[in-house]
Amino acid sequence: MHIHRYEKYWLMFGGGIIIAFIVALFVNAFAMGMTPPSDLQRVDPKKVEQTAPFDKPGLKQVGPNEYEAVMVSFAFGYNPNQIEVPVGSKVTFISTSKDVVHGFQIPGTNVNMMVVPGHVNKVTHTFDKPGEYLILCNEYCGAAHHMMMAKVIVK
Amino acid sequence: MTQEVRVDQKAAKLSLSYILVAFIGFGIAAIAGLLQGLDRAQLITLPTWLNYYQILTAHGVLMGLVFTTFFIEGFLFSGIARVQNGKLTPLGLKLGWVGFWVMLIGTVMGVITVLMNDASVLFTFYAPMKASPFFYIGAALIVVGSWIGGWGMFAEYRNWKRNNPGKFSPLFLFTAVATMTLWQICTLGVAAEVLFQLIPWSLGMVDTVNVLLSRTLLWFFGHPLVYFWLMPAYMTWYLIMPKIIGGKVFSDSITRLVFVIFVLLSTPIGFHHQLMEPGIDPKWKFLHVALTLSIAIPSLITAFTMFATFELAGRAKGATGLFGWFRKLPWKDARFFSLFLAMLWFIPAGAGGIINASNQLNQVVHNTIWVTGHFHLTIGTAVALTFFCVSYWLIPHLTGRKMTRTTNELGRLQAVLWSIGMIFMSGSMHTLGLLGGPRRTAGTTYMNDPTALSWIPFHKLAALGGAFLFFAAMLQVGLVLYLAFKAPKGEQEYPMGDVAEDAAETPRILERWPVWISVAVILILVAYGYPIADMIQNPPPGAPGVRTW
Lengths: 155, 549
Fold this sequence. Notes:
- Chain A has 155 residues and is of the alpha+beta class.
- Chain A folds into two domains: 1-34; 48-154, Cupredoxins -  blue copper proteins (Immunoglobulin-like).
- Chain A has one helix at 5-31, and strands at 58-63, 66-74, 77-79, 82-85, 89-97, 102-105, 112-115, 121-127, 131-136, 149-154.
- In chain A, the strands form three sheets. In chain A, strands 1, 2, 3, 5 and 8 form a five-stranded mixed beta sheet that branches. Chain A has a three-stranded mixed beta sheet with strand order 4-10-9, with no helix packed on it.
- The N and C termini of chain A lie far apart (66 Å).
- With 549 residues, chain B is an all-alpha fold.
- Among the domains of chain B are: 8-156, Up-down Bundle (Four Helix Bundle (Hemerythrin (Met), subunit A)); 330-510, Cytochrome C Oxidase, Chain A.
- Chain B is built from 16 helices and two strands.
- Chain B has a two-stranded antiparallel ribbon.
- In chain B, helix 3 (90-115) runs antiparallel to helix 4, helix 5 (171-202) packs antiparallel against helix 6 (211-244) and helix 10 packs antiparallel against helix 12.
- Chain B is globular.
- At the A-B interface, helix 1, strand 7 and strand 9 of A face helix 2, helix 6, helix 7, helix 8 and helix 9 of B.
């Protein structure tokens, strides 16, 4: 097929950029391990309260400055709805849903994941600055979706 | 040279029916949109009988499904008639009408359930939120109706090929077939979800639903859907625009190639909507990310082709210098002016799309109102402005009326108001999204949380943009009604571009649909075969339905 000379240059330029993007994302994901939240564990949404670790939601220290925050999502809130950690803590948020699909996001950080009934999801963040962080649901989940929130207090 | 061809009475009536329903839906959706902006900016409080999420559902379904699908069916039927001496075959007409009525019944069912607050589940109706079965049946009928219309277009294509053996089909017919082929492939996902999962479950025949599978099937359809909106806009840019600016279609083969790439790459990319989701291996997500980025290539080709078309037309009119052609473009003609703004808006829109699709950057913007800002630039501006500008000449052409000087000026004003509105609304939404503001959320301060309070000025700016957009939308609906029923009688040209004489000959392979459809199916099997088989064979624990609104 005949392609115009300038079009060839443009295609090489455009195609080159796209390839560069894909390579950069590939290196990010597989060499540096920066894959998005994609946990593969499952849990029966009807038995969340009887299934570990969701039978005991809350904050658990797992190492020096390292915590796991098990937080059950439901319409319209999180359990627990407030956790406190010291500055510099690395927190892994672990959540599942008891009912519909929810979001789990902390504005100002990269904490952002979907909480889907039947699945467990996880995301990790290190809190370097003290303050009150808002956790909010960013996936529509019903009439009081805009009230669904929790807090992380970093001291 | 093509002589002046008029779309005949029968085809015009069919096309006009679709387009009028489209704009009625658009007008109602615009009212819902304005109310949402005002609520989020906390400028009004909605009455208790009118839920924010109810009008959000109405806005999404009416804009995203009713306005677009009805408009596209009507526009494509009119263009197919235009390239066939103004006529549709009896079979094409019949299927067109059956499709119209099926879609209309589906729309009415959907709208009634939404008004009764039985289906405040938004445009994406994510399970296990459980709406009234009539909502799902209505959505299914809209899709099935659009299939039937598409079959009518395929019948036109087959008829043309039979009467013209060995020849290339007219470009408009080819690109219409490409658009409808993509639609028939991608809607299989949502049809499977609705028919096999949601309808039996909402009727109470099964207790639980496989949520992961339902989301995957929805997004199998959900992203190609945006290309189904975009392709008719591209048809206008590639085939109609050259005639309006007094130029030629740049290249027959490039045009066909771009549409073939859309058919191939639009579907196997849905996981980029599920990047933040559990249950899907990151490797599969990455495959979809790479394919998603590749689909920027036809858009880059389009950018080149559009400017090449502008420049060639300008030079043919005697423009000199590197950018002299720019001044030769018909800026005073609403048919071109709106279109140019639409194309301009697609540049930042496409750049935002690359950000959304990148698996890491997505974590910053996923489900924030940035995404809403993004699709208000793509579908809400690039595509919608193109459709508006088509309506300015298509409606008078179909009704035997004429676009007047005043309609031309109002059309240009409409595009300016719309663009100003989008600068404020979409600009604020993009900013808010980067700050972490969620989408699909009613006005809230999260109990006076300082972060959420700091967002309010941006919500107010977005509402200001919404007000501009609302006035522009009402002006558009007014123009449509005027052109359909009140404009002076006359002749309005259906601008259809001719291919440049010196364009290279088109390779045969580009017209071989069996080849391209097979490649598309193989790509889909590679991207979705294993993940979907796995979701069915090893399903996650099922979720019971809930009504949470």
